[in-house]
Amino acid sequence: MASKIDPTAFIHPLADVEDNVTIGKRTKVWRWSHIMSGAVIGDDCVISQGCFVAGTVVIGNGCHIQNNVNLYDGCVLGNFVFIGPNSTTTNVKFPRSHRKGKFEKTIFKDNSSVGAGVVIVCGTTLGEFCMIGASSCVTKDVPPGVTSFGVPATVKKNKNHHLEKLNI
User: Fold this and answer.
1) Mean pLDDT value of segment 14-37
2) DSSP for residue 118
């Protein structure tokens, strides 16, 4: 099946974009990123260098995925999601080399933000406007609008102070 790449999208010559992907208007995919067959990426996104996007991943509009982020099967990103550099997701809670598990979903709601070096365990949902601090490990759902960090990540601020600065 042929890809649906909007003509206004930019794909760096050193990016590996497989057949059967959808990439929206004005989206940029930078060098050394690998977009697997079946992935859907919305409009006005930035997929920075060295990222991996698996084939069942869906990325909404206006998302910024920083360098070296891994989005494995089962990830669904809403609109305006930010994922900091060197963050990664998982898709099987009990992996074994000899068996393949059913991929669990990881949901990033609209406007959620993830700091650098965060591990997000599958089966979790990051609520709208939540913020995850750098180097955290998300093991359970994060409520909307809170700041959460640590290993494991726990709620540290019940209201995201950045919302006030954004007049939201």
Assistant:
1) 98
2) -
DSSP 105: P
Q: Given 3.10.310.10, 2.160.20.10, 3.40.50.300, 2.160.10.10, which CATH number is that of 1-168?
A: 2.160.10.10
| Distance separating alpha carbons of residues 58 and 32, to the nearest angstrom | 20
Whether the CB-CB separation of 74 and 36 falls below 8 Å is answered with: no
CA distances from 149 to 63, 90, 156 (A): 21, 18, 7
Is pLDDT above 80 for 137?
Answer: yes
Q: Tell me the backbone φ, ψ of residue 5, rounded to 5 degrees.
A: -105, 120
- CB-CB contact of 12 with 29 (8 Å): yes
pLDDT, tens digit, 9 for 90 and up, residues 52-74: 999 999 999 999 999 999 999 99
Place of tokens 């600065």: 165
The model's pTM is 0.92
Residue range 111-117: mean pLDDT, rounded: 97
CA–CA separation, 86 and 71 (whole Å): 11
Q: Which amino acid is at 151?
A: V
Q: Where are the domains of the chain?
A: 1-168
